[in-house]
Amino acid sequence: xxxxEFGLGMFGDLSFDRHTNQAQPPKERLAQMLxxxxxxxxxxLDALVLGEHHRPDYxxxxxxxxxxxMASVTKHIKLSSGVTVLSSSDPVKxxxxxxxxxxxxDGRAEICAxxxxxxESFPLFGYDLKDYHALFEEKLLLLLKLNxxxxxxxxxxxxxxxxxxxxxxRPEKPLPIWVAVGGTPESVYRAAKLGLPIIFAxxxxxxxxxxxxxxFYKQEYENHGHDVGSMQIGVHSHTYLxxxxxxxxxxxxxxxxxxxxxxxxSRGWSPYT
Length: 273
Description:
The structure is a single chain. By secondary structure, the chain is α/β, with parallel strands linked by helices. Helix content is 39%, strand content 18%. It is built from eight helices and twelve strands. It has helices spanning 26-43, 63-71, 91-104, 121-124, 132-148, 185-194, 211-223, 245-265; strands at 7-10, 16-17, 22-23, 47-50, 78-81, 84-85, 109-114, 151-154, 162-166, 177-181, 198-202, 233-237. Strand 10 (177-181), helix 6 and strand 11 (198-202) form a beta-alpha-beta unit.
């Protein structure tokens, strides 16, 4: 039976006080997030996805660590990255961290791998942006191999080779691995070809604009012989829930727009309206 799941996405974004010109302390934001995830779990939300950023605007650089803390205060909700910036990460360490999270959370861990919409992690971890596409392709295939095979022999261009190596710890069953895409057909095709679940990150624009890409994914998923009954498609989008439009306009939007405009300065985004 088809099922729609609802989840909560967090980046650990820090609120900004325009009067003091100071960002919220990361310690305070992390404590808030633990309270929020406890409530989400109690209310029956299906999943939590946690983004990775290496910027002053956000409190979460290591989703695995924060997810492990969240595992200790929840019982049911799935715990996923959203995304793990796989291009600038070591797939072996990613797999170990999420396998550990899976054991701590009684099988609730998932990985959502992506190239990320920011590039700060590339110079931070010593990767060249000219390898942007090749890095993700190679590391995704290695991550899938680690997940499928207990003993791995592998050779690539960006990491030391593995020879009959077993990665520990092992989860009790293979980890769910999603691919997040921002809207490029090449990324959609890769996920469909590999038969991986996909999540579309709608950072801006209207959701209708993504329908052709979703149709393309469905077509290529089937063309490559994957079981259509196992297909999983997700959407991650900015959302605000309130009892009134007045709350949105008066309390939330000015702060949110100011933050997104600070981020957007380096991205060439138009001011939020």
